[in-house]
Design a protein that fits this description.
heterodimer; A: 438 residues; 3 domains; 18 helices; 2 strands; B: 510 residues; alpha+beta; MetI-like fold; five-stranded mixed beta sheet; globular
Chain lengths: 438, 510
C-alpha cells in the first residue's frame, strides 16, 4: 500500500525532519507540574486546597518550633526569655524541658550512674536480633541470641548472676531430658517429661540453687527494683519481652487452632477469641486488680512482671491469628508432601510447614509487634511510668507545670521513629519474600 | 490410610494408647482436657480461698444498689440515686455512642484518604501518606491526649464570646467552640414530627421499590432508568413537601400561654411584676417545640423562671392544680374546658412550632445555655479514634482498589461502559470484597480502643462499671467479669456479622 502511495503521490516527503526537542510546555518541570498538579479543574482545586493546608499547618507550627528556647530551668524562665527576646505572646516552644528531663523520659527513675546497663542491654538485643532478621549473618550467632535474654535480664535488674543462670539451667534440663528419654520411652512421654521437669525445677530448686551458688561464688551487681524502671526503657522492655515470649505461645496456639483434635482445637479457639475480644486495658486492669485472686493466697509479685505476663498472653492471641493466616496460605500439597515423606506431625511442622508459614507471616508479626509497642503506653493507667506517665509526672513538678506540646512532640517523634522503621523493615521483607515466590 | 486395612484384629493393649495413631489422638486430648480441668479448678479454688480470706462473696447484687455518683453525659435518664446496673447501662450506651460515631467518621476519613492517596496529584498523594504514616506510627493514646489538650488549652473560654471578647461563634452564630466543649444547635420535635418521620420511612420503602423496578425494567427491556436521580428525589422531595405542609398548617397555629392567678389579657411583663412576682415556675414538656417557644418568649421578656418538666398536657394541668407551677403551655388541641381553675390566657401567645426546630446555644451567665453541649472528652476521643482508625482504613481501601487489576477497567472501557458505571459496577464490587473484612476488624479495634476513654474522663462502660462502681463496691471480680463479657459479646456480634458478609460475597467456586 505505502509503496504505491509513495510512487504515485509526488508530495510525500522522502527525507526525515531533524529531531527537535518537545515544546517548553511539554517537557521537564513544566510537564511534570501540568500532569501532576494542574491536569484538570478538580486537580487544580485539590492542589490549591492542599497547598493551603500545608501552608496553614507550617505557619502555625514552624515559628513555634524554630523559636524554641533550649536553655532555661523552668517554664516561667522560658516565658521570661521569650518575652525579653521575642516580645510578649509570641509563639515559641520551650525545648529546655527536654534538656532538663530527657534522662527521665528515657530511663524513668533508673539510677543515673547505671544508665550504661540498659544501654548495653539494648546493644546486646540489637546484636542478638540481627541473625534472626538478616539471613546473611552466620547461623552460629543464633546461640548468642538464645543466651541474650538471660544476659539482658541480669543487666537490667542486676542482683546475683546465678539467678538467671539457674533459670537458664531449667531449659538445659528440659532439653537433656528430652534427648535422653526420646529413644527410650518414645516421643510423647519425652515431651511431657521435658515440659514438666523444668517447671518442677523452677518451682522447687532453682531459687535455693541460685542462693547456694551465690554463697559459694559471689558474683553480683547492684540490684535495681522494678519501680525504678520507666520511660522508653519500660516500653522497650515490655514490648520486647512480650513479643519474644508470645511468639512460641502464639505458634502453639495457631497449630492448636489448625489441629484436628477436637478438644485442643476448642481450647485454642476459646483462648484466642476471649483474649482478642476484650481490650488490652481491661486485661491490664485484670492483671493489676485480679491476678492476686487467681494465685495461691499470699503470693504477691511484681506489677511489671504481671503486666509482661498479660501482654504476652494478649500478643500471643494476635500472633496466633497471624501465623494461622500463614499456615492457611500454604498450598495443601505441602502438607500432603510432608505426610508422603512419612514425617510425624512435629517433624513435618518443624521441617516443612512452619519455616514456610512463618516466612509468610513475618510482616504480620512485625505489625503485631508495632501494635504491641504502641500499646505499651496503656500501662500508665495501672501506675507504671511509661513515657506518657512520666510526662504527667514532669507536668506535675513546679518548674514544668503547664507544659504540654513539647513533651507530646518528643514522645510522639520517638514512637514514630521506632514504629516507622519497623514498618519499613516489614515492607522490605515483604518485597524480598515476594521475589522469592515468583 | 491404606495401612488401616491390614491392621491385625488383636485385642486391645494399653500400649496402643500411645503407639497406635487411632488411639493416640484420644489420649492426647484426654490428657489435655484433664490438664485444663486441673488448671481451672486450681484457679477457682485459689479464687474461693482468696475471697473468703478477704471476707468477700461472689454475687451480682451490687448491681441493684444505689450508685451515688453522677455521670455528666447520659443518653438515658440517670441520677445519683439510680442503681449501679443503671450506671453500667449508661456507660454501655456511651461506649456504643462513641463506637458508632467513631466508625462513621473513620469510614469517611479512611475512604477519602485511601482514594486520595492513589491520586495522580503528587501533593495530595504525599499529604495523605504523611497523614496515614503519622497516625499509624504514634500510639492512639498520645493522639487522644494531644487532641484533648488542644480542645481544652487552645480554645477560647465562654466569657471570651461576650461583646469585646476575641472569640466568635461560627456557622451563622449557631456553633460555639469553647474550652468547655462544643455547643451545637439542639433539635426539638414539635407537632407533626411523627408524620414527618412516617413520610420519611415510606419514602425509604419507595426508594427500595423504585430501585427494584428499575433493575427489572433494565433486565427485561434493556432500558436504563435514572436510578440515582430517582433515589435522590424520593429521599428529599416527599419529606420536604411534608415539612412545608406541616409548617404551613400546624406550624402557624398559635397557642395561648396560661398563667395561674393572672387577670384576663394580662401581658407577661405585668404578670411577672404582679401575681408572679414571687417566682415563675413553668410547666412544659421538655424537648417539645412548645416548650422551646415558651422559653424563647420568657427569655425575650427577660423573665427568670424554673422549668418543671411534665410528661404531657394532662400532667401539666395536674401539676398546675397542685400548685407546682404558675405558668403552663398546653400541647395544641387541648380542650379549653380542661384548663385548670384560676388559669387565664396571657395576651402573648406562642407558635405551636414547626415539626422540627433547632435551638441555638446562647451565652448565659458563665456558660452557654441551650443547644447541645458536646463535651471535650467526647470530641477528643471521637476525633482521635476516628483519625487513628481512619489511617488504617485508608490503607485497606488503597490495597483493595489496587487489588483490582487494570485489565478490568480496560475491559469495561472496551465494552463501552462509562467511567462512573465502570467504577460502580466493575471496580467497586471487586474491591469491596477485599476492603470490607479488614475494615470490620478495624471497627472492632475502634470499639475496643474506646476503652481509652479513661484518658480523658469520658464516662464509658469501663469508667462506670469497671471504674467507679468497682471502687465503690469492692466487687472487682464481678465487675471485671461483666465488663469483659460486654466487650466479648460486642466483638463476637461484630465478627459474626463479618463472617456472614464474607460468606455472602465469597467467590462462588463451582
Amino acid at each position: 500500500m505505502s509503496d504505491t502511495h509513495a510512487q504515485t503521490v509526488s508530495f510525500v516527503r522522502e527525507s526525515m525532519i531533524p529531531q527537535s526537542p518537545p515544546p517548553t510546555g511539554n517537557r521537564g518541570a513544566v510537564l511534570w507540574l501540568r500532569e501532576n498538579l494542574f491536569s484538570g479543574w478538580l486537580n487544580i482545586l485539590l492542589t490549591l486546597v492542599s497547598l493551603y493546608v500545608i501552608w496553614w499547618a507550617l505557619a502555625h507550627t514552624m515559628p513555634w518550633v524554630f523559636n524554641g528556647i533550649w536553655n532555661a530551668g523552668s517554664l516561667s524562665e522560658c516565658r521570661e526569655i521569650r518575652n525579653a527576646t521575642m516580645g510578649e505572646g509570641s509563639s515559641a516552644a520551650c525545648w529546655a524541658v527536654l534538656g532538663d528531663r530527657w534522662q527521665q523520659l528515657m530511663f524513668g527513675f533508673y539510677p543515673r550512674e547505671l544508665y550504661w546497663r540498659p544501654v548495653l542491654a539494648l546493644v546486646i538485643f540489637l546484636a542478638a536480633i540481627a541473625p534472626v532478621l538478616f539471613a546473611q549473618m552466620p547461623r552460629r550467632a543464633l546461640w548468642f541470641t538464645a543466651l541474650s535474654p538471660f544476659v539482658m535480664f541480669w543487666l537490667l535488674w542486676g542482683g546475683s548472676v546465678w539467678f538467671p543462670v539457674s533459670v537458664g539451667l531449667g531449659f538445659v534440663l528440659g532439653w537433656a531430658a528430652w534427648r535422653a528419654l526420646a529413644p527410650l520411652a518414645g516421643n510423647l512421654v519425652a515431651v511431657i517429661v521435658a515440659a514438666l521437669l523444668p517447671v518442677i525445677y523452677w518451682l522447687y530448686s532453682a531459687g535455693p540453687l541460685a542462693r547456694e551458688l551465690e554463697q559459694a561464688v559471689a558474683l553480683s551487681i547492684e540490684y535495681v527494683p522494678s519501680q525504678d524502671f520507666g520511660g522508653f526503657m519500660l516500653s522497650f522492655i515490655i514490648g520486647i519481652a512480650g513479643i519474644i515470649l508470645s511468639l512460641p505461645l502464639g505458634i502453639l496456639l495457631a497449630l492448636g487452632r489448625q489441629s484436628d483434635l477436637f478438644i485442643i482445637n476448642k481450647i485454642s479457639v476459646g483462648f484466642i477469641e476471649i483474649i482478642r475480644g476484650v481490650p488490652l486495658i481491661v486485661w491490664l486492669f485484670t492483671a493489676s486488680l485480679l491476678l492476686n485472686y487467681f494465685l495461691p493466697p499470699g503470693t504477691n509479685f511484681d506489677l511489671m512482671l504481671r503486666v509482661i505476663i498479660m501482654v504476652t498472653l494478649f500478643a500471643a492471641a494476635y500472633i496466633a491469628e497471624v501465623v494461622r493466616g500463614g499456615l492457611a496460605a500454604l498450598p495443601k500439597g505441602q502438607y500432603e508432601a510432608a505426610d508422603a515423606l512419612g514425617l510425624d506431625y512435629w517433624k513435618a511442622m518443624r521441617l516443612i510447614i512452619l519455616p514456610q508459614a512463618l516466612k509468610i507471616s513475618i510482616p504480620g508479626i512485625v505489625n503485631t509487634f508495632i501494635g504491641l509497642f504502641k500499646d505499651t503506653t496503656l500501662v500508665v493507667f495501672i501506675g507504671l511510668f511509661d513515657p506518657i506517665g512520666l510526662s504527667n509526672a514532669i507536668r506535675a513538678s513546679v518548674e514544668w507545670n503547664g507544659i504540654y506540646w513539647e513533651l507530646f512532640v518528643f514522645i510522639g517523634l520517638l514512637f514514630f521513629i521506632c514504629c516507622f522503621s519497623m514498618s519499613r523493615y516489614s515492607l522490605y521483607l515483604e518485597k524480598k519474600l515476594q521475589r522469592g515466590h515468583k | 490410610m491404606t495401612t488401616t486395612s491390614d491392621v491385625p484384629k488383636a485385642g486391645f493393649r494399653p500400649s496402643q494408647l500411645i503407639y497406635d495413631t487411632r488411639y493416640r489422638s484420644l489420649t492426647i486430648q484426654v490428657i489435655a482436657f484433664i490438664a485444663l480441668m486441673l488448671g481451672l479448678s486450681w484457679l477457682v479454688s485459689n479464687t474461693i480461698a482468696n475471697l473468703s480470706a478477704l471476707g468477700k462473696d461472689f454475687d451480682f447484687g451490687f448491681l441493684g444498689q444505689r450508685a451515688g455518683y453522677d455521670i455528666n453525659q447520659r443518653l438515658v435518664e440517670y441520677d445519683s440515686a439510680s442503681s449501679h446496673g443503671r450506671a453500667a447501662l449508661v456507660g454501655i450506651l456511651n461506649t456504643l455512642l462513641i463506637a458508632v460515631l467513631g466508625c462513621a467518621l473513620a469510614t469517611v476519613v479512611g475512604v477519602l484518604a485511601g482514594v486520595l492517596r492513589l491520586s495522580k496529584n503528587w501533593i495530595v498523594a504525599n499529604l495523605m501518606a504523611v497523614y496515614v504514616e503519622g497516625f499509624r506510627n504514634i500510639p492512639v493514646l498520645l493522639w487522644i491526649l494531644l487532641i484533648f489538650a488542644l480542645m481544652t488549652e487552645s480554645t477560647p473560654q465562654p466569657r471570651d464570646f461576650r461583646d469585646g471578647g476575641d472569640a466568635a461563634m461560627i456557622l451563622g452564630d449557631s456553633v460555639a467552640i469553647t474550652n468547655r466543649g462544643v455547643f451545637i444547635p439542639a433539635p426539638f420535635w414539635g407537632a407533626g414530627a411523627g408524620i414527618l418521620l412516617a413520610v420519611f420511612l415510606v419514602s425509604l420503602v419507595g426508594i427500595y421499590v423504585w430501585r427494584r423496578h428499575a433493575h427489572k425494567v433494565q433486565e427485561q427491556t434493556g432500558r436504563i432508568l435514572p436510578i440515582g436521580w430517582g433515589t435522590l428525589g424520593l429521599l428529599i422531595v416527599p419529606t420536604a413537601l411534608a415539612f412545608l405542609a406541616l409548617s404551613a398548617t400546624t406550624g402557624r397555629e398559635r397557642l395561648p400561654v396560661y398563667a395561674v392567678g393572672a387577670e384576663a389579657n394580662m401581658s407577661l411583663a405585668d404578670f411577672t411584676a404582679g401575681p408572679g412576682a414571687q417566682g415563675l415556675n413553668v410547666c412544659a414538656v421538655p424537648g417539645s417545640t412548645e416548650a422551646l417557644n415558651l422559653r424563647r418568649l420568657m427569655r425575650a421578656g427577660e423573665a427568670r423562671f424554673n422549668l418543671v418538666p411534665v410528661a404531657d398536657g394532662a400532667a401539666a394541668i395536674a401539676a398546675a392544680e397542685a400548685g407546682r407551677c404558675n405558668i403552663l403551655s398546653l400541647p395544641g388541641g387541648t380542650d379549653p374546658a380542661t384548663v385548670p381553675a384560676g388559669a387565664v390566657a396571657l395576651s402573648e401567645d406562642i407558635a405551636r412550632g414547626l415539626p422540627v426546630e433547632f435551638e441555638r446555644p446562647v451565652l448565659g451567665g458563665f456558660n452557654f445555655e441551650g443547644g447541645l453541649q458536646l463535651r471535650n472528652s467526647l470530641i477528643a476521643l471521637w476525633l482521635a479514634l476516628s483519625l487513628y482508625t481512619g489511617a488504617f482504613i485508608a490503607e485497606n481501601v488503597r490495597g483493595g482498589i489496587l487489588s483490582v487489576s487494570k485489565g478490568q477497567t480496560e475491559a469495561a472501557f472496551a465494552l463501552g461502559i462509562k467511567p462512573s458505571r465502570t467504577m460502580r459496577l466493575v471496580i467497586l464490587p471487586q474491591a469491596l470484597r477485599v476492603i470490607i473484612p479488614p475494615m470490620i476488624s478495624q471497627y472492632l479495634n475502634l470499639t475496643k480502643n474506646s476503652s481509652l476513654a479513661i484518658a480523658v474522663g469520658y464516662m464509658d462502660v469501663r469508667s462506670t462499671l469497671g471504674g467507679i462502681t468497682i471502687n465503690q463496691t469492692g466487687k472487682e471480680l464481678e465487675g471485671m467479669l461483666l465488663l469483659g463479657l460486654f466487650y466479648l459479646v460486642t466483638s463476637l456480634i461484630i465478627s459474626s456479622a463479618m463472617n456472614l458478609y464474607n460468606s455472602r460475597v465469597k467467590l462462588k467456586e463451582r
